[in-house]
Every structure is written in structure tokens, then in C-alpha cells.
Amino acid sequence: MRSEELAWRIRRHVIEMAHTAHGSHVGSALSIADIVAVLYGEFVEPGALERRDKNRTRIVLSKGHAGAAIYAALAEIGLMPIEELKTHYADGSRLSGHVSHKGLTGVEVSTGSLGQGVGMAAGMALAGARDGLEYRTFVIAGDGECDEGAIWEMALFARQQRLNRLTLIVDRNELQAYGLTAEIMDLLDLGKKFEAFGWRAVDVDGHDHEQLRRALSKIDETRPTAVIAHTVKGKGVSFMENNNLWHYRDPQGADYENAVRELEACRP
Q1: Is 139 in contact with 108 (CB distance < 8 Å)?
Q2: Is the pLDDT of residue 56 over 90?
Q3: Residues in CB range of 93: below 8 A, 6 or more apart
Q4: 3-state SS, residue 31
Q5: With pLDDT > 90 as the criterion, what percentage of the chain qualifies?
Q6: Sign, CA torsion 146/234/188/161
Q7: Rounded to two decimals, what is the model's pTM?
Q8: 3-265, which class in CATH?
Q9: CA 123 vs CA 79, 117, 226: distances in Å
Q10: Where do the H-state alpha helices sit in 32-148?
Q11: pLDDT tens, 204-228?
Q12: Nearest to 169 by CA among 40, 267, 55
């Protein structure tokens, strides 16, 4: 399956999951759908995840509230039944609102407390380096999450340890829970910030799969990489795009019907 098709399927599942469960964070999950599709569609081997192969690619979603996108990707690459997506947010479900690794193949760690996942990803990258393994570790963080000091502590640590097989992808949609990142805590030029911390940094269109492929494929031999992925929160559904109401709102009634209609009209 092409990554573009996978991204569409992720978005379609996200709408259904949020609608059925009255779940939140639909805008955040739509924002990262292309990033997740490229990672799970082209940088992981499902069998290696299933076997928990020691050289498997590690993917950590530090912005754990967007976990619906991860669950959808795992279902589409065959690591869980697609029917199970209907249990998202339900009592007793494996598919909790914030992404959980409990009982799930393909989720390395449970996350949700912002700033937490990046440190765990750096630890995975360090363990691989010390064990002489070649696996790569990718971690997705939000731009609002970059308000957390833990992000910058990790950045210093990862550069000091020369974790060149660690790649951080920042979902730069310029919105966080209560408004614009520029108004809440202006992050200015994130790429330059990471470069100042000694990282390789590259800016990409976070919805352009070819740009994502190129940026994620490249490894700098001496330092970690930060990919600043410029995205649109709610991407794929016009009335959700750049509308922060959809950080918490769930699609019901006409909103649900219109979202489905728009996505069905643009299937690859």
C-alpha cells in the first residue's frame, strides 16, 4: 500500500473512532496522519515488530493524545484487527485515549505526559548505540510540547551522546490545546533552536510524503536529527483545519457526515 493511501485510511479511521467513542484530539491525529503513514508504511517491518526483533525500528509517539492515528496505522499494516478500532476509548479496551503499549504490538511505550516520550526515545537510541545495534528510533512530538523543558534536556543529552540514529519529528501545526503557539509560548524558528543545540535540523512540508521520505531517510553520522514538519491541524477535513475547537470536540451529526463526505471525495 502506498503511504498516501495509508494516510487517507488513517484519517478515515480517526473520524470513525472519534465519532463512535465521542473521543477527543481528532485535530491532532489528523495533523500527523501523513507522518505516521510514511513511518509505519515505509520505515518499519511489521514482522520485526511482531517478533520484537532487537533490531526493529522504534517509533515513539510523545504527543500521546494523538494515539488514534497510531492505532489506525497498526490495524492497516496487520498488527491488530481493523474491527478493534471500534473499541477506542471504551471501558476495558486496549485502545486507550492516550496511546498505550499494554498488550499491543507496535507500540513501544505508553505516553501522554508531554515531554516524556522524547526522553524514552533517547534512552532507546542510547541502548542501541551501546549494544552495537543498527536500529533507528523515531519520536513524534508536538510543537506545543516543545514548551516543556524535558525536550531541551533531551536535546542536550542526545547531542552529547552523539545519538545519530535518533530522529525527532516535530508536528509544527502552530496550535496547542488553548490557542496559537506563537501567543502562548512563541517558539520562533525551531530548526535554528535545534541547530544551536548541535542537531542536524531540516524543515519539511509535513503533508508531502516525498519530502518526509527524504528527510527521514538521511542520517548524520555525528549527531541526531530534528525534522520540523510544518502541518495543518485537522488536515483533510476543511472545517477542522486550523480550527482549535477540534482539539477536544468530536464529530457528530452534520459534522460527522460532512467529514466523511469530504474524505470519501478525496480518496487517493
Answers
A1: no
A2: yes
A3: 84, 87
A4: helix
A5: 99
A6: positive
A7: 0.97
A8: alpha beta
A9: 25, 10, 16
A10: 33-42, 46-51, 67-76, 116-130
A11: 999 999 999 999 999 999 999 999 9
A12: 40
